[in-house]
Structures are given as C-alpha cells and as structure tokens.
C-alpha cells in the first residue's frame, strides 16, 4: 500500500529505549541478591563468547543515576527495564529482599522525576537459580504461584507510579533456546520437556495478567514476543505451506495463546502425533483464556525465510552465529515442516540478522489483523561493532539508517491503521549481549569496556544519540521528509 499522505505519530507516542537487568546491572551478589540461572550458566566453559558474564556488566546498579541523567538529556519519553527476580525475593520464593526492591523504587522515582515513563518487565530470563534447583524451574507448576507472588509484590510496590508492564520477555526464545537448543539455561535438548515448560510459562503469564488490573487498575500489561514474520522463499505452493507451518509453530503457538487462550490446531495435532504436546490439566485452558493482555509487545529484529524440508533426510538444527563472523549461520529446520533460507533480497548484519524494515510493517499488520490489539514495539535495534574514535566519538551512521528505516515503516503502519503505542530501541546503553559478549553493541550510549576488561566503564554518547533526541523532539516529523 502506498499512501499519498502519512498520518503523524500520535502525540502521546512512547519514544523509548530498553534494557534488561542481567545485561546491565552487574552487582550479581550485592545487597542480598541471590544467583539466577544465568549467573550459573555463564560459568560453564564454552557457553558464552570468550566466557563473558554479567557479574559487572555495565555496572548500572551503581551508575543508574548517571544513566537516567543521560536519558533525560536525550528527552526520552519511556524507559523499559526489567526487574531481577532473585534480587527482590531471596531464592525466588523466600523472604522479600528490601534492599533489592529499594533499588527499583529509587530508579522509578528518578525516571518519573525526569518525565520518563517507566515500562517494567517482570521477567527477562534471570530465573532464581534456587527455583531451578528446588523443582526444575519452568518444568514445575509450582513456578506459577511463585511467579504470581513475585509479580504482585512488584505491582503493590511500584504500581502507583508504573503504568506499563511487560510480563514475560520473549517466552519463545528463552524456552526454545533453554530446552531445545541448550544454548540458554537450563541447557536441555528435549522437545517434550520444552513444550511442557512452555505451557507452564504460559499459565504463569496468564495468571498474572488475569489479576493485574486488581492491583494496577489504570495500568496496561502485555507480553513481549520475539516476532520474526515468516516469508516463503518462493511462490512454489509447498514453500508457501512451509512458511505457514513456521508462522504457526513459531509465532501463533505463543501469540494465539496470549490473545485467545488457544493453541493453533495444526501444530497441536502435529505435536500430539509426535508425542510432544504438553499435558493439560483441568482449568488450564480457562486460565489461559482469562489472561488477555492490553497490548501485544513485539520485539522485532528480522524476518525469516523458509522453504520446504523433506521428512526423510531433511535439514535439522543448525549452528547460530554468536561470533560476529558474517556468513557462519547454518540453515536450520524441522524435517517435514520447514527449513530456513537466506533471503537474497536482504542485507544482513555481521551476526547474519537480515535487515528488513518492511518486515516490521508486515508483522505489525499481521498482528493487527489477527488479534486486533494495540502494539508496543518493546525492542528493535541494531547489534554491530562500534568503533570508539579519538575524542570520544562513535560514528554509528549504520545504526541511524537502521532505526530510521524501521521508524519510517512504523509511520506507514500507523497510516495503515495499526494502533502503535510506542517504540523502544534496544538498547539505551551498550550491554552484555548474552551469548555474544560485549562486542555486539546496540546502545545509543557507548560503554567503555570489552570482553577482556571492564576498563573505566565510561559512558559516551554515540552519533545516534543526537539523532534519536531530535527525532523525539520533532515527534518523528522529519523521518519521512
Ligand atoms: C532480545 C532480548 O530480549 C534481548 O535481551 C537481547 O539482547 C536482544 N534481543 C538482542 O539479541
């Protein structure tokens, strides 16, 4: 659709940036914090790039005031951050750790004081290690009540100032990398266990969302889903069907549950036939149906292109590129369903993530069409090598191009009728990129550290910082000009 005239971004548009506790805070064992599953996992040799961990990360726990001041300088309207569960509840289901809560309380106050809307993520992957040990974490139904207690503790404490909440961040990623690929904790490769753990996570999510408005009546809550819209590699009907298989199995499997409390039928039947479907208990589907979110949070980085994959001799799991060596990603698939293909129409980053701004519009349109929910883009951004030049200059023009391209498509999507609440750039400062170390940088603010040393952790504004500041000031008016 080519519009003659674009609608402006809404006046109350949440121009934001995002982060996650484990990736920025550091202070991994300070002020009564218990270990998370990531604190343990990163110590297993060979799991992360150059053995990096978040013990210190970018030391936000001690430098949060300076970081908020930078946000204020930028004129940021919203800041999405996550709370570390093991920081605020000892061992996940023990005593409340007042010191931990105080940290987030102060952060929220400082944001509000600077007219920055806090968006709080309840769970960004750092499950308390004690819960993993007590009952296998997401594999036990006990996690549903423990997550509920943790979440409502935060609603009660921060809900008077925090209106926007994200429940689970990228459930599809932490579950599949944790239980299928063993690339995330708890490092399992078992599809049956994966679908069961996922079902419990969906129930935990629904239970918290179902009661949320009792605690924060004026608030809004939704999950953040890692959505990579599926494309067909060719117009061959079998490839189109393969892309549909992927869309249903890798996206609708979660988003249908969030929005409708239902699993997509074709995939349910496929999993049942293969002995992989989760075991349901009485009341599960009713609870899922009660957890309808106020918005769909979307983390968008790329689309994925698929073609048919034979059942016999087809392609299975391939290696991911966590080294930043372009071209090292392998094709990956499920025999009989689909396999990935490099899209010849798109450029890719050094981590082989295809750059596709139009894909964002495609995704926003698909969600609007299917679920009719408002959308918050809870993450979008470019992970690249940045170079710190003399006099503290970082010329990240490629990041500006990336963000500009995606925001242009957002404006077109708004004109198409998408109810877009806001856009959070991943990330505000540079941070630890989980498996990819510190060299894959996303921030508007360069942090002077690398894999080998924490150096001085100095904060330096990149060129993209000023660009985003101006974009916010002008409410995106010049983006399509
Ligand atoms: C999604 C995750 O939520 C975030 O933690 C991660 O660092 C970014 N994507 C980039 O990979």
Topology:
Layout: E1 14-18, H1 21-24, H2 37-41, H3 60-74, E2 78-82, H4 85-88, H5 98-113, E3 117-123, H6 129-135, H7 142-158, E4 164-169, H8 171-179, H9 191-215, E5 220-226, E6 230-232, H10 237-260, H11 265-273, H12 284-290, E7 296-299, E8 304-307, E9 333-334, E10 338-341, H13 357-371, E11 375-380, H14 397-416, E12 420-426, E13 445-447, E14 459-461, H15 463-473
Helix pairs in contact: 3-5, 7-9, 8-9, 9-12, 13-14
This protein binds 1-deoxynojirimycin (NOJ).
1-deoxynojirimycin (NOJ) binds next to loops.
Low-confidence stretches: none
Terminal Cα span: 18 Å
Look at the helices and sheets and give the structural class.
alpha/beta
Query: Please, how many helices?
Result: 15
Helix content: 25-40%
Question: Could you provide a short overview of the structure?
Answer:
The protein is built from 15 helices and 14 strands. It is an alpha/beta fold. 1-deoxynojirimycin binds at residues 20, 23, 169-170, 299, 379, 383, 426, 433-434.
Keywords:
alpha/beta; globular; 8-stranded parallel beta barrel; 4-stranded mixed β-sheet; 481 residues; binds 1-deoxynojirimycin
Give an overview in words.
The strands form three sheets. Strands 1-2-3-4-5-7-11-12 form an eight-stranded parallel β-barrel, surrounded by six helices. A four-stranded mixed β-sheet has the order 6-8-10-9, covered by helices on one side. Strands 13-14 form a two-stranded antiparallel sheet. It has helices at residues 21-24, 37-41, 60-74, 85-88, 98-113, 129-135, 142-158, 171-179, 191-215, 237-260, 265-273, 284-290, 357-371, 397-416, 463-473; strands at 14-18, 78-82, 117-123, 164-169, 220-226, 230-232, 296-299, 304-307, 333-334, 338-341, 375-380, 420-426, 445-447, 459-461. The chain is α/β, with parallel strands linked by helices. The mean pLDDT is 97. The chain contains 15 helices and 14 strands. Bound molecules: 1-deoxynojirimycin (NOJ). Residues 20, 23, 169-170, 299, 379, 383, 426, 433-434 line the site of 1-deoxynojirimycin.
């Amino acid at each position: 659709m080519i519009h003659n005239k674009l609608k402006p971004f809404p006046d109350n548009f949440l121009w934001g940036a995002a982060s996650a506790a484990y990736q920025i805070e550091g202070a991994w064992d300070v002020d009564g914090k218990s270990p998370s599953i990531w604190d343990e996992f990163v110590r297993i040799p060979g799991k992360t790039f150059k053995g990096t961990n978040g013990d210190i990360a970018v030391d936000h726990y001690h430098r949060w005031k300076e970081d908020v001041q930078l946000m204020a300088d930028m004129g940021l309207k919203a800041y999405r951050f996550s709370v570390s569960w093991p920081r605020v509840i000892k061992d996940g289901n023990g005593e409340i750790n007042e010191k931990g809560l105080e940290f987030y309380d102060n952060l929220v106050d400082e944001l509000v004081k600077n007219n920055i809307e806090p968006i709080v993520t309840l769970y960004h992957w750092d499950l308390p290690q004690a819960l993993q040990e007590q009952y296998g974490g997401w594999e036990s139904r006990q996690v549903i009540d423990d997550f509920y207690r943790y979440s409502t503790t935060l609603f009660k404490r921060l809900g008077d100032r925090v209106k926007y909440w994200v429940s689970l961040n990228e459930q599809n990623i932490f579950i599949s990398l944790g239980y299928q690929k063993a690339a995330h904790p708890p490092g399992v490769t078992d599809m049956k266990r994966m679908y069961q753990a996922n079902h419990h996570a969906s129930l935990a999510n629904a239970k918290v969302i179902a009661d949320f408005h009792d605690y924060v009546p004026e608030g809004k809550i939704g999950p953040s889903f890692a959505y990579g819209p599926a494309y067909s590699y060719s117009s061959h009907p079998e490839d189109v069907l393969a892309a549909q298989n992927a869309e249903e199995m890798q996206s609708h499997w979660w988003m249908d549950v969030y929005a409708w409390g239902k699993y997509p039928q074709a995939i349910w039947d496929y999993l049942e036939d293969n002995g992989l479907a989760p075991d349901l208990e009485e009341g599960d589907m009713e609870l899922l149906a009660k957890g309808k979110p106020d918005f769909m949070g979307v983390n968008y980085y790329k689309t994925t292109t698929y073609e048919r994959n034979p059942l016999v001799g087809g392609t299975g799991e391939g290696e991911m590129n966590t080294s930043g060596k372009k071209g090292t990603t392998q094709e990956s698939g499920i025999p009989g369903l689909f396999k990935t293909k490099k899209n010849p129409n798109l450029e890719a980053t050094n981590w082989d993530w295809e750059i596709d701004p139009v894909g964002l519009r495609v995704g926003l349109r698909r969600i609007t069409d299917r679920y009719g929910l408002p959308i918050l883009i809870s993450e979008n951004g470019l992970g690249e090598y940045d170079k710190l030049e003399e006099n503290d200059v970082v010329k990240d023009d490629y990041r500006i191009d990336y963000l500009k391209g995606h925001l242009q498509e957002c404006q077109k999507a708004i004109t198409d009728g998408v109810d877009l609440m806001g856009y959070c750039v991943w990330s505000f400062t540079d941070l630890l990129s989980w498996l990819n170390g510190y060299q894959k940088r996303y921030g508007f603010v360069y942090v002077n550290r690398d894999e080998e040393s924490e150096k001085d952790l100095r904060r330096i504004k990149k060129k993209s910082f000023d660009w985003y500041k101006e974009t916010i000031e002008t409410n995106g008016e010049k983006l399509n000009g």
